[in-house]
Amino acid sequence: MQIDRHLAAIPRKTMSRPVRLVLESGIFQEGMSFFDYGCGYGRDGFEVATLGYAVGNWDPFYAPNEPLIPSDIVNLGYVINVIENAQERREALLNAWELTQRILIVSAQVLIDDPDRGVMSYEDGIITRRNTFQKYFEQEELKSYIDQVLQVDAIPVGLGVYVIFREAEQAQAFQASRFHRRVKTPSIRLPVKRFEDYEQILRPLMDFYTQRGRLPKKGELAEELEIRNIFGNFQRAFQVVLQVTQASEWDEIREQRLQELLLYLALARFGQRPTMRQLSPALREDIRALLGSYEAACILADRMLYGLRDFSQLTEVCRGCSLGKKFKSSFVVHLDYVECLPTLLRLYEGCASRTVGRLEGANVVKFSLQEAKISYLVYGDFDRVAHPLLLERMDVYVSRLRVSYQDYRESDNPPILHEKDLLVGTDYPLHEKFAQLSQKERDRGLLDDYGPIRTRRGWEKCLEQYCSLVKGHQLFWRKDCDSYKLNFLKSQTNARKRKAESF
Asked: How many CB atoms lie within 10 A of CB 184?
């Protein structure tokens, strides 16, 4: 049977999702070259070239005469899933890997819904109505396939998108960096003449400690010679820094970096946990300085991983969080604040994102406290709409590594979000606006019974019942409400306010 593989190529007006995700991850570095193996119409190459990278393209149908150029980054984008012959599919993956000097990007269609889609089966995939072939991989099946063919440990950067590094050190440095929370270097609280005289040279030392939670070793800091000439060593130089900053802030940075190392090592158990030699020199020094030995660090990381089995412990950790919405069987938080959660919860979410990847566009994460499940939720217009509607949901069943997906865009009664202020930190730009609305809704009794208001219809019915109207992030009384009922509701609202103020 003749399959028209070339018809599977998609004319794009923008960069493909896999290449964009890799760009956003920070993997592309200045001076790197890019090659698109199986480029189709060549849009990715065009877009990457506009960013200043050297680019090459090849495709068996659309660009068969272009040279195959070994490059730093090679993209194999949605190629292996359109090849119906298993041996040719394997060869395409190996050929792309052979061209790769640093990083290979592999993406394919993954199965998160109905596998049949109303078309006939063929080999290990399906024949579409356009007479093209599509193999739908399970997410973990895709990783296993890449790992088995290339003898590597592929790293997910999104659903159906993996990156593979040539050098183990670079792979582990990238993995560790994904759990690295940005923090500010402690500010100067007490100006001291000696510090002012040497502030310019001490700043790089402060930034290094902020980045790694430790002092640099020999050869790790460009300003080392100058610092040693003035202070003798890094320890003495840092004593001057401590004179003008809070020591507790540096202790917090050190503890945070320690926890991030444990998080990285715990999640490394889901692939091939590296040996100490496979780590970058800087990462090895981090472990020695913060955790003593690699063996001890791995033991601590494993203990933390085993702690995920205890849902009562997870529940207690959630209850102790200063942010996030707490339900009896779940915990919900904005995706941007996952990195601010306790390490055990970050590990729980990492079990899903490290092995499957996050749903693109997700802005809310739901932690199940009854089964090993992480849900990624996409709420539309989170900032602009007071009660945004749920557009998409992806559930990752961690223990089974299964994925389910639901699209609510066509639903006439989708789930709706309340109390957005609880999902974000007080540093969120719109937190105060969110919080004021939520408090007014509580005072009015709109949030007393969460069950009926979980969906749009239920919320609209509740608003009507309480003669209320939400515009923007403001709450108003409806003008068409019966005056007796309106006065009664206002008196109830005032009573709730007085009761809340008395506590």
From this structure: 8
- Same domain assignment for residues 45 and 147: yes
Whether the per-residue pLDDT at 3 is higher than 60: the answer is no
b/e map of 428-438 (b: 16 or more CB within 10 Å)? beebebbbebb
Share of the chain above pLDDT 90, in %: 66
User: What is the pLDDT confidence band of residue 116, given thresholds at 50, 70 and 90?
Assistant: very low
Are residues 47 and 12 in contact, defined by beta-carbon separation less than 8 angstroms?
no
| Packing angle of the helix pair 234-244, 193-212 (nearest 10 deg) | 110
Tokens of 202: 């001490």
For tokens 């849009």, the residue is 43
Q: Among candidates 72, 70, 110, 76, which has minimal Cα distance to 93?
A: 76
Q: How far is CA 126 from CA 84, 108, 168, 327, 370, in A?
A: 9, 14, 36, 42, 36
Nearest alpha carbon to residue 75 among 52, 92, 87, 50: 92
**What's the pTM?**
0.83
Q: Which domain holds residue 208?
A: 193-245
How far apart are the C-alpha atoms of 71 and 54, rounded to whole Å?
9
Note whether 208 and 345 are same-domain residues: no
Chain CA centroid to CA 53, Å: 26
How confident is the model at residue 81, as a pLDDT?
Answer: 86
CA distance 186 to 163: 35
Residues 17, 148 within the same domain: yes
Beta-strand runs (E) in 20-173: 33-37, 54-58, 71-77, 100-107, 121-122, 125-127, 133-134, 155-158, 161-165
Q: Give CA torsion, residues 375, 381, 387, 388, to 10 deg.
A: -40
Helix (H) or strand (E) holding 161: strand 161-165
Interior CA angle at 400 toward 398 and 406, to 5°?
A: 70
Question: pLDDT of 40-49, one tens digit each?
Answer: 888 999 999 9
Residue 271 has pLDDT above 90, yes or no: no
Given pLDDT bands bounded at 50, 70 and 90, which one contains residue 38? Answer: very high
Within a domain: 186: no
Whether residue 444 sits in one domain with residue 400: no
Residue 141 is encoded by which pair of tokens?
A: 């099946």
